[in-house]
Design goal:
single chain, alpha/beta, Rossmann fold, five-stranded mixed sheet, two-stranded parallel sheet, 6 helices, about 25% strand, Methyltransferase domain-containing protein, SAM-dependent_MTases_sf
């Protein structure tokens, strides 16, 4: 983005985890990084100074009431007329074709655990409403479906199908387990069943990706 904008544009990357920051020596001259948790208000001197705020894929760290808090804090950053662009996926957006019992088990356990720890299973479907309630206007949304791409994102989806199961199920075990997920042997079994469905039965993974735009009046 820095290469596409005038040199007078100022860009700032913000994350609560500084290990995700690139080395300062690799940053464009007009870009800086800042550590901050968006659940807390941004410094007063930043309020009303941004033309655009871009948020991407924070749903895994969000509980139900967090969404409205973050939306209000983002609203405070923007100048009148400034835009918010928010991209998300969520627990309910994953699909497989043809149906897979192993995938259904993974989804059931993952969703039950998400609800148990306070996450909102209806997000990001309700994100436009959250943004509107925060004061934004001209709220719009576009849904991208991976099955609608020419190759159905075959290689990325194949990679996800092999790597997605264990991290989520390990979180379930660390929290005491749920239903059929009580030990690492259960994770191994589920991962093998999903692998077999994908490699031997031709099951294809897909998802919906939400983009929400909105303007500060």
């Amino acid at each position: 983005m820095a290469a596409q904008l005038p040199s007078t544009a100022e860009l700032r990357g913000i994350d609560m985890d500084t290990t995700k920051f690139p080395p300062a020596s690799e940053l464009p001259k007009n870009m800086s990084m800042m550590q901050h948790n968006a659940l807390k208000p941004f410094p007063q001197e930043m309020h009303g100074t941004f033309d655009m705020v871009h948020v991407r894929l924070i749903s895994l760290g969000m509980k139900k009431d967090d969404w409205a808090v973050v939306a209000k804090h983002l609203y405070a950053l923007l100048r009148p007329g400034g835009y918010l662009h928010w991209e998300e996926v969520g627990d309910s957006v994953w699909r497989v074709i043809p149906p897979s019992k192993a995938f259904d088990e993974w989804m059931r356990i993952g969703t039950l655990w998400s609800m148990k720890v306070g996450r909102d299973p209806f997000m990001p479907a309700r994100l436009p409403l959250i943004v509107q309630d925060a004061g934004f206007v001209d709220v719009d949304e576009k849904i991208f479906n991976s099955f609608g791409t020419r190759d159905m994102l075959h290689e990325p989806m194949l990679k996800i199908s092999k790597e997605l199961v264990r991290p989520v199920m390990l979180c379930v075990l660390e929290d005491g387990g749920l239903e059929t997920m009580q030990s690492e042997k259960d994770i191994d079994r589920l991962q093998e069943e999903i692998r077999r469905d994908v490699e031997e039965s031709g099951v294809k993974f897909g998802f919906y990706y939400s983009w929400v735009w909105a303007r500060h009046p």
